[in-house]
Amino acid sequence: MAQFSDIDKLAVSTLRLLSVDQVESAQSGHPGAPLGLAPVAHVIFKQLRCNPNNEHWINRDRFVLSNGHSCALLYSMLHLLGYDYSIEDLRQFRQVNSRTPGHPEFHSAGVEITSGPLGQGISNAVGMAIAQANFAATYNEDGFPISDSYTFAIVGDGCLQEGVSSETSSLAGHLQLGNLITFYDSNSISIDGKTSYSFDEDVLKRYEAYGWEVMEVDKGDDDMESISSALEKAKLSKDKPTIIKVTTTIGFGSLQQGTAGVHGSALKADDVKQLKKRWGFDPNKSFVVPQEVYDYYKKTVVEPGQKLNEEWDKMFEEYKTKFPEKGKELQRRLNGELPEGWEKHLPKFTPDDDALATRKTSQQVLTNMVQVLPELIGGSADLTPSNLTRWEGAVDFQPPITQLGNYAGRYIRYGVREHGMGAIMNGISAFGANYKPYGGTFLNFVSYAAGAVRLAALSGNPVIWVATHDSIGLGEDGPTHQPIETLAHLRAIPNMHVWRPADGNETSAAYYSAIKSGRTPSVVALSRQNLPQLEHSSFEKALKGGYVIHDVENPDIILVSTGSEVSISIDAAKKLYDTKKIKARVVSLPDFYTFDRQSEEYRFSVLPDGVPIMSFEVLATSSWGKYAHQSFGLDEFGRSGKGPEIYKLFDFTADGVASRAEKTINYYKGKQLLSPMGRAF
Q: Among this protein's residues, is 418 annotated catalytic?
């Protein structure tokens, strides 16, 4: 067990007061948790394998602050370790464009994941632990421990009340992730006051039922020896994740300690002064760090971490000589590069090919991609036969002892845990090594994971959602399963690809974009029903997000559609000309986000001024205003019945589209029309 002395106590006091000073400077933030948690953070980081000079070293330990409102503590620790945070950065806590935002953000130095919404952090940590286990099983060789790191997390009462943490913790126990060690900060206080108002379960019994190792430290405010002893015992548990309940006093040392008053507000000036006096600091000075504290962390954490990093680098060079193929592949992944020519394995389709549901063309893409992309790892939330996310010969990611698979397997059985799956994917992505995680569910049930989807976009985790059964075309399962508003919601999220391909070529384009993406997640919305392989569909053109798929000279109207409605729009265009000599251009717009990032010249060549534009999509119309003058869609819930019959019920047919196209032309006849894409700024 580690020995603790006066210098450790001084370091803890420094952490506490730096955190308080940040909140005081901002007059905003959460001082309570940092005051109670500082000893836990000190113990974790004292033994943490990290290198501030190489923060992306692949074999570093990961630290996740799930209760992200406690971030002043994290910034204080990262500053003391020499990460890129100055004292001035700490002074700018919670200020506009500062390096110390109000909750940890993934792009900040030393911050592994974006946390704030409770329950997401611990769930991300499960994803990191999965990634590490898979990475180790894939690349470790005898005498060459390429990966043997741990993921550490601190969680609060609020994190463990959120359902997503239950989903992921349950799966972590099943997967026997002994590389995951979690500290539960039990301070019995939330924003509303005592947690007993709404939360009095025995958390450790729950986690024991999940299959976790459980431990308890009664005096977390100052008993660093017991905290350290529990951590070392946790490392001995190789086939179970560990949760260590640490009882702390929120706002420890404050005049308001143990109350909700210290949870989310700056302390009063007299309170801050008495705290500093209590721990031997000048009450009239702020942001004070004794030099011996810097020196101590440098000696105990930074220099050992740098040495371990150097030793790992030497080992890796030897590894590349002894295992040249694996070494080359691993180096490529660490460089964030894809294999040369990987895209040539994407399937291409012609109009002579069979009509297929885009979920089926998606399966063809995944089957081809897993053969050439070892970084591709994914699964389904208990919908594998429907999502078609598994490929022939796939090995499940499972504990070897279960004989259900092994840790080198790349297919993850998430169970009925959509939200958990999304958060875990974010963690796998954040681990590094160029992992490309994907997860399958019905499009409608991506909404269950809204919190994780949003954080993927905000953090820049390029995860891939395989979202099948994308419309009323799924049929008999009815309106509970039919997505109506889902795409409008997803399209409203900044930094989000939302693909709805019309056929196989567009499906390949969607996956090409998603796999190539460095900082943008993707949702690929796929049909249950068969769709024809369209004439003039184009992999290359689809990569622009939108293109003309059926053209005429001097069109009277432009029909713009996505997914299964593109073929109906083409049929409507042909009917309009054959029966009325009305000339209709058809535009396929599979991804708004990508199309919006094309040149103005290109976008206006597709959707020009002077022609009425009508959108057609059997989903909510609310996202179409910037592309169409009129929208034909579904702004009510669907029905239960066979897909084709439901389409007929709502007049979503070639005749129905043609009729509304003619009405649109007549409505705008004689009026000056500008493309809806035109903007003053």
A: yes
Q: Which domain holds residue 23?
A: 6-307
Residue 525: per-residue pLDDT: 98
365, 346 in Cβ contact below 8 A?
yes
222-280 pLDDT, tens digit per residue, is 999 999 999 999 999 999 999 999 999 999 999 999 999 999 999 999 999 999 999 99
What distance in Å separates the CA atoms of residue 22 and residue 354, rounded to the nearest whole number? 63
Question: Would the CA dihedral through 653, 659, 662, 663 be positive or negative?
Answer: negative
Q: What's the length of the chain?
A: 681
Query: Do residues 146 and 188 share a domain?
Result: yes
- pTM for the model stands at 0.97
Residues 509 and 577 in one domain: no
Continuous segment of H or E residues that includes residue 419: helix 418-431
CA quadruple 186, 188, 192, 198: dihedral sign: positive
- Over 60: is that where the pLDDT of 1 sits? no
Closest CA to 221 of 493, 33, 94, 421: 33
Which two tokens mark 124? 């991300």
Element (H, E) at 186: strand 180-186
**Coil/strand/helix, residue 182:** strand
Question: Are 496 and 457 a contacting pair, CB within 8 Å?
Answer: yes
Catalytic residue among 418, 506, 565, 617: 418
Please check whether residue 558 lies inside any domain of the structure: yes
Over residues 367-377, mean pLDDT = 98
pLDDT above 80: residue 511 = yes
In one-letter notation, the amino acid at residue 634 is L
Cα–Cα distance measured from residue 488 to residue 481, given in angstroms and rounded to the nearest whole number: 16
Structure tokens at 677: 């894409």
CATH number of 59's domain: 3.40.50.970
pLDDT for the residue numbered 484: 97
pLDDT band of 2, cuts 50, 70, 90: low
Q: Count how many domains the chain has.
A: 3
Pairing outcome for strands 436-442 and 630-632: unpaired
Residue 155: closest CA among 164, 147, 146: 164
Among 462, 458, 542, 469, CA closest to 501: 542
Per-residue pLDDT of 591-646, as tens digits, reads 999 999 999 999 999 999 999 999 999 999 999 999 999 999 999 999 999 999 99
Q: Within a 10 A sphere around the Cβ of 494, how many other Cβ atoms?
A: 9
Are residues 662 and 591 in contact, defined by beta-carbon separation less than 8 angstroms?
no
For 190, how many CA atoms within 13 A lie in the half-sphere containing its CB? 17
559/513 same-domain check? no
Distance, CA of 223 to CA of 231 (rounded, Å): 13
Residue 201 neighbours by CB under 8 Å, 6+ apart: none
Asked if 333 contacts 434 with a C-beta cutoff of 8 angstroms, the reply is yes
Q: What is the DSSP letter of 247?
A: E
Do strands 193-194 and 189-190 pair parallel, antiparallel, or not at all (unpaired)? antiparallel
Q: What is the pLDDT of residues 123-145, one digit of tens each?
A: 999 999 999 999 999 999 999 99
* C-alpha to C-alpha distance for 522 and 524, rounded to whole angstroms: 6
Claim to verify: residue 188 and residue 279 sit in the same structural domain: yes
Mean pLDDT, the chain, rounded, equals: 97
The angle that helices 120-139 and 163-174 make with each other, rounded to 10 degrees, is 20
532 in a structural domain: no
